[in-house]
């Protein structure tokens, strides 16, 4: 059995993993590392998902890395453009040679005496086991199951004679022209797929149990264009990035402070985009803005497809599947040749890897998250969890910057390990993710908790996190260095 040692092991070659590697190359070039990627290519989400219209639902000036400018004119980029951006970053910082593909991590064990992690992987093609050792693990594996999406059990599903497709397993060259297509779901994936299928000539119905907040935003930022003309590229990128960060913070806080006013504002925007199509009940959610993740329709493409009669929305509950469609609880029947179950993801904590401390099982659900990036009582283990109310990458960038400072602090003081310890006697557990979404609620008991106060509380606020992770001292009474 092969054994390889490096200073750091990065789990996953997606957006967070490639970013973490670039940051190491920039800020800690003395550290050796490998990236263990379970699949056969880099890109994570952006190489896995192939459904029509796959794109970012955050603006690319904040979804892109802090150290690499976004050159494209589109604010909300399609999947292939994001994958190209990731590949460029990997090449610019010589990351590609560090990636070990088809290495699916199955177990981690930290030896407190040796201050060393042992990572065991299985080759997803040959089933061969490999053992890696390292000082630090960067867990960048994302938060969902890559092999299978979430599909609820529908009554008489086997009776349906057409195709049933989950977006996570989208087939190559699916012909939808002149086909009746029902998209089940109302989240970001459904809102992305519906206008694309309509453009391809399908007769599309989005079937939802309850509405989601959807806002039309321009896919070209005029202020960004102006700033690009006025300033050098890197300065302009930074200004646009900060502008968009503050816009999102302001919008999020307005939704929290004035939920009714913001609800009316968003619904009125939907009214303008829909024309004669009714907003009630299809676009009036039964929760306040930002209690669940917000959906974006670049240039209003989703509303335009409905306004022009190329797609429609039905709000109802499924009774059962029929050979040629779906029977709803209201008694209405939706005819379908293809049913797309845009019903969400299956969450999995840290890639489902078995974690051990001194060869004893470590229960992550019993731990607290320190500053959004370490687990209490688990040394030299860093987690990358992005924002739920803003671009994922904003937080993963800050996480990398903080880790860089920690590594330098350890080296300066001749330490080999760092561990977060709960010293508060009144710390109360709070669910890690602050959204009331189905995929989060289904898996809440598998995840670690955040606390009810800093530094165990996750603020979902870039300004507060910037202070905590970039400016505040690394030294903290809750951190044990050894």
Automatic annotation (TrEMBL):
Entry-linked InterPro entries: FAD-binding_MO, FAD/NAD-bd_sf, Flavin_mOase-like
Transmembrane segments: none
Cofactor(s) needed by this chain: FAD
Pfam families in UniProt: FMO-like (PF00743)
Gene3D superfamilies per record: FAD/NAD(P)-binding domain (3.50.50.60)
Key words, A-Z: FAD, Flavoprotein, Monooxygenase, NADP, Oxidoreductase
A molecular function (GO) term: N,N-dimethylaniline monooxygenase activity
Protein family according to the UniProt entry: Belongs to the FAD-binding monooxygenase family.
The protein, known as: Predicted flavoprotein CzcO associated with the cation diffusion facilitator CzcD
């Amino acid at each position: 059995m092969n054994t390889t040692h490096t200073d750091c092991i990065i789990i996953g070659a997606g957006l967070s993993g490639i970013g973490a590697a670039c940051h190491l190359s920039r800020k800690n070039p003395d550290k050796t590392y490998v990236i263990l990627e379970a699949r056969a290519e880099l890109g994570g989400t952006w190489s896995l998902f192939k459904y029509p219209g796959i794109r970012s639902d955050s603006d690319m000036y904040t979804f892109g890395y802090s150290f690499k400018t976004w050159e494209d004119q589109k604010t909300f980029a399609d999947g292939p453009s994001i994958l190209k951006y990731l590949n460029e970053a990997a090449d610019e910082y010589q990351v590609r040679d560090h990636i070990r593909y088809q290495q699916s991590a199955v177990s981690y064990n930290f030896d407190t005496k040796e201050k060393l992690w042992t990572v065991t992987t299985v080759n997803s093609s040959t089933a061969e086991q490999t053992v890696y050792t390292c000082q630090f693990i960067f867990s960048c594996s994302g938060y969902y199951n890559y092999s299978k999406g979430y599909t609820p059990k529908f009554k008489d599903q086997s009776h349906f004679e057409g195709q049933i497709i989950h977006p996570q397993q989208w087939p190559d060259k699916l012909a939808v022209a002149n086909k009746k297509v029902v998209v089940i779901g109302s989240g970001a994936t459904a809102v992305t797929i519906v206008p694309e299928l309509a453009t391809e000539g399908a007769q599309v119905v989005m079937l939802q149990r309850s509405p989601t907040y959807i806002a039309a935003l321009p896919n070209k930022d005029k202020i960004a264009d102006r700033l690009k003309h006025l300033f050098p590229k890197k300065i302009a990128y930074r200004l646009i990035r900060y502008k968009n960060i503050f816009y999102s913070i302001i919008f999020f806080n307005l939704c929290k402070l004035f939920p009714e006013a913001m609800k009316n504002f968003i619904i009125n925007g939907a009214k303008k985009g829909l024309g004669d199509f009714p907003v009630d009940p299809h676009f009036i959610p039964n929760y306040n803005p930002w209690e669940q993740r917000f959906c974006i329709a670049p240039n209003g493409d989703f509303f335009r497809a409905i306004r022009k009669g190329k797609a429609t929305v039905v709000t109802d509950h499924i009774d059962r599947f029929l050979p040629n469609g779906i029977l709803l609880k209201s008694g209405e029947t939706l005819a379908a040749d293809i049913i797309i179950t845009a019903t969400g993801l299956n969450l999995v904590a840290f890639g489902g890897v078995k974690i051990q401390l001194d060869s004893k099982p470590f229960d992550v659900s019993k731990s607290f998250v320190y500053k959004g990036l370490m687990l209490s009582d688990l040394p030299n283990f860093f987690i990358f969890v992005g924002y739920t109310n803003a671009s994922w990458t904003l937080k993963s960038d800050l996480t990398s910057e903080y880790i860089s400072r920690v590594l330098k602090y350890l080296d300066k003081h001749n330490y080999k390990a760092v561990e977060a310890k709960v010293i508060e006697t009144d710390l109360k557990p709070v669910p890690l993710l602050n959204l009331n979404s189905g995929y989060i609620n289904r898996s809440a008991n598998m995840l670690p908790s955040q606390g009810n106060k800093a530094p165990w509380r996750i603020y979902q606020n870039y300004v507060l996190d910037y202070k905590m992770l970039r400016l505040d001292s690394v030294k903290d009474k809750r951190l044990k260095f050894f």
